[in-house]
Specification:
The structure is a single chain. The chain is built from five helices and no strands. It is mainly α.
Length: about 140
Amino acid sequence: MTRYVVIWLALLLRVACLLLFPALAVWAWRPGSARLLWSLTGAAVAVVLLFAAFAASTAGGNALAATYGYRYTASGSLLLLGVTLGLPMVAAALAVQTAAARLASRVGLYALGLLVALLAWIGGLVGALWVYYAAAR
């Protein structure tokens, strides 16, 4: 049962990180101060990493943790979720902060943040696959 809850939470987390976070970044951006934006980004990345640590444990439903140990599953989970969910949020926040002076439209800022987040997600997936295949050799 726990495994199914973790699967649904992971799906919800992916949707929130890729679709909702750029909107939160636009909301958090204030001219002259990026403190709220980067505080929100840091908190969101921390939530992703905490979820990755939980999903890698036996309590999170990971069957490999009992066989290979928590260190083995946690390192992979933290790396994968860090580059596929953490990296897109940081990239979206950076794009919003950089383009906010040039784009007056909040919808335009959201579209840019979303595009950058999706591109960073694809880059994170490719990077994670590259690391996996390099380690498998």
